Amino acid sequence: MRVEIWTDISCPWCYVGQARFEKALASFPHRADVEVVHRSFQLDPHRTKGDAEPIIGFLMRGKGWTREQAQANEDTLSRQSAALGLKYVMGRDHGYTFDMHRLLHFAKEQGRQRELLTLLYRANFAEERSVYDDDERLVDLAAEAGLDADAARKVLADPSAHAEDVHADLREAAAVGATGVPFFVLDRRFAVSGAQRPEVFTQALTKAWESRSSLPVVAGAAHGDACGPDGCPVPH
Amino acid sequence: MRVEIWTDISCPWCYVGQARFEKALASFPHRADVEVVHRSFQLDPHRTKGDAEPIIGFLMRGKGWTREQAQANEDTLSRQSAALGLKYVMGRDHGYTFDMHRLLHFAKEQGRQRELLTLLYRANFAEERSVYDDDERLVDLAAEAGLDADAARKVLADPSAHAEDVHADLREAAAVGATGVPFFVLDRRFAVSGAQRPEVFTQALTKAWESRSSLPVVAGAAHGDACGPDGCPVPH
Asked: Could you report the predicted ipTM of this complex, rounded to two decimals?
């Protein structure tokens, strides 16, 4: 079974939702047969490299909030994170994430995607130093995730590297109806939107697992040629 | 969109079916957004390393056929292959494929699965020399597919390497109802069984593509916390 999770690194509910999903997955009896894939989403698609800014100012300007309102929003996210054992620093930045998604696709190729995603979330939400607009910071995180630092540096230096992979994910997000994140798709049969409680993920995993055997066969062996336990019959 | 194809290297209808599917895919307008994944299937799960034998003898013994009947079966498969431009040698062997599946999983990790699968089919069906029970032959094919020869040799020498990946595919085959191969699963929403005509694959690809947007959301944003174009609302 495959679970695809559309997320953005700058999305606090993705940080929380990932932990809630992983909590459910850890106790799912068939977890060894569940493949989890990160899919790219851009919360703020017009943002460009170099224009990171403190989240509080961004919320005040973008939403017309007072400083107190923006601060209260961050306080709530910090408490929700703490409830899952996740650190959440106040005063994080908001910025450009496209290159992080490119790096996550490179990590996927190397079997290190989950490791890098976890480290990117931690860097953005749990560490004082901004994760934005600092390629060497990303190279360090890639190395910590088990990737080759020079290879990661090359990916970051070449804007075309894995860019098409990110764009394909963004197109798929639109196709499956993901307008916000986190957005979870189980075997392309069911979707779960938002950072639901772990019990909701457990139910969705169970439902998707049990429905695997009800796959409609749109063209069957009666009209096709196949090999099975009785050999490879040929048409007469 | 993802298409998973359960196959075995020793399966002639898989060789033919792969070519028919690829013909349909080549003219599918959204082919750039279709990911194709090989899944392992064992036609003859009790066969072990070292006991390859000529296919004609296997068919005569296994199915109680005369030599002429077995030969006629091979003739038909040869003609079906030729119709797709595929060479098919008479007198191929039948043998143990588990290690080839392990190698295909290693190739998947390296982004070279399709290349290796194509070469394994060619080696088994289009070349005089048997592909079975000859690790160095497989290492050569792996290298031709763009893999590191030493790494491939190590995978073959360690029976546990990628064995669990193969077993997971076999379990999934049972779960999705694949009792014969080739068996095609499109986005885990539709299945096509057998080496259907290219037009059937075109219809199935189109149907699966168009149905992507009708994914049922089992738990929606109304009850979950998500970030979208309007920010990351928090519960009050």
From this structure: 0.80
pLDDT digits 0-9 by tens, A144-201: 999 999 999 999 999 999 999 999 999 999 999 898 999 999 999 999 999 999 999 9
What residues of chain A, 13 to 32, have a C-beta less than 8 Å from chain B?
A: 13-14, 16-17, 32
A window 149-208, beta carbon within 8 A of B = 168, 171-172, 175-177, 179-183, 185, 187-196, 200, 203-204, 207
* CATH for B2-211 (3.40.50.1240, 1.20.1290.10, 3.40.30.10, 3.30.1330.60): 3.40.30.10
Instruction: Tell me the chain B residues in contact with residue A190 when contact means C-beta distances shorter than 8 Å.
Output: 215-218
**Residue among A116, A71, A63, A114 at smallest CA distance from A92:** A71
Q: Distance between CA B170 and CA B44 in Å, rounded?
A: 12
- The predicted structure's pLDDT at residue B236: 59
Torsion A61-A63-A66-A67 (CA) sign: negative
- Which A residues 69-88 touch B at CB under 8 Å? 73, 76-77, 80
Contact between A227 and B12 using a beta-carbon 8 Å cutoff: yes
pLDDT at A236: 59
Q: Which residue of A has its CA nearest to B34?
A: A168
pLDDT tens string A60-115: 998 899 999 999 999 999 999 999 999 999 989 999 999 999 999 999 999 999 99
- Residues for chain B: how many in total? 236
Nearest chain B Cα distance for residue A50, angstroms: 21
Q: What is the bridge-based pairing of β-strands B183-186 and A53-54?
A: unpaired
**A141 and chain B in contact, CB less than 8 A:** no
Per-domain boundaries in chain B: 2-211
Contact A231 B62 (CB under 8 A): yes
Separation in Å, CA A164 to CA A55, A102, B3? 29, 9, 19
The tens digit of pLDDT for each residue in B115-170 reads 999 999 999 999 999 999 999 999 999 999 999 999 999 999 999 999 999 999 99
The verdict on B231 touching A (C-beta cutoff 8 Å) is yes
The conformation of residue A181, written as its DSSP 8-state character, comes to: B
Do residues B52 and B132 lie in contact, with contact meaning Cβ atoms separated by under 8 Å?
yes
- Please state, rounded to an integer, the average pLDDT across all residues of chain A: 93
- Select from A62, A111, A177 the Cβ nearest to the Cβ of B213: A177
